Amino acid sequence: MPQINSPSQVKSWVQWFERAAAYYKDPRMKMAYYQDACTGRPVSLSIMKRIYKDIWQKLKADKRHSLLEVGCGVGLFYRYYHHRLKEMRGTDISPKMIKDAYALNPHGKFFVAESHALPFPDQSLDRLLCYSVFHYFSNLSYAQKVLNEFVRVVGTEGVILIGDILLPGSRKKIKGVNSWPQKPWWPSQLNHQLNKLKIKPEFFKNYCRRKGLTYEILQQRISGRFLPETRYDLRITINKNEK
């Protein structure tokens, strides 16, 4: 595997993903899609297909729609969804991730951009997906800025799906795993002391109520996917009278 010049501890999630993208070969590992937190195996292809299917059903998208994925990483979802849509684009804050996204999808449309500053006009998108990203944000104030940006770029009758949100206080025992590893399986280049942002559903509910947005809190029922924290999804629908 490629060597990282500086093995010093990771200082931000952006730096972590830059290093992960450079270190791992498997695109699932680059995007931290692990089978569990103890062995370092990538999520199996069968479970990935269940994740793709769960997301697709919640997006309510088809050939009539354009889709933007915010936090697209190396373009795993792009590869699975783009042929089902009128158009699909992806953004990520990591230049290395975007480079790898083009390697995986040579004809894709990818952009380096922060989640709160998307390079698209107002109401120009039919669907927006942001999956397993919000827990890497610094705080709720930034999360609200991102929500404002999502609402700006999605047109009337559009859908915003924010997925894989961490629920506070939901630490649980993983079936078949008795304890966390005493010695990390990941390389020293990826060591960090970073925290993940956990968000109560009430934060999203209150935001949508203030903005007059229609929302649904959706549960995840993905067979075979074992995670140490409970996660949930949020679907926002932009109705005609909400712009």
Protein architecture, described:
- The protein has a 7-stranded mixed β-sheet, with helices on both faces.
- The longest helix is centred in the first third of the chain and has 15 residues, at 45-59.
- It has helices at 13-23, 27-30, 45-59, 76-81, 95-104, 140-153, 201-211; strands spanning 66-70, 87-92, 110-112, 125-131, 154-171, 214-219, 229-237.
- The protein is built from 7 helices and 7 strands.
- The chain is globular.
- The N and C termini lie far apart (49 Å).
- 29% of the residues lie in helices and 22% in strands.
- Helix 1 runs parallel beside helix 5 (95-104).
- The protein has 243 residues and is of the alpha/beta class.
- The protein has a single domain, classed as Vaccinia Virus protein VP39 (Rossmann fold).
Ends apart, CA distance between termini: 49 Å
* Order of secondary-structure elements: HHHEHEHEEHEHEE
What class do helices, strands and sheet pairing give? alpha/beta
Number of strands: 7
Number of H/I helices: 7
Whole-angstrom Rg: 18 Å
- Main pleated sheet: 7 strands, mixed
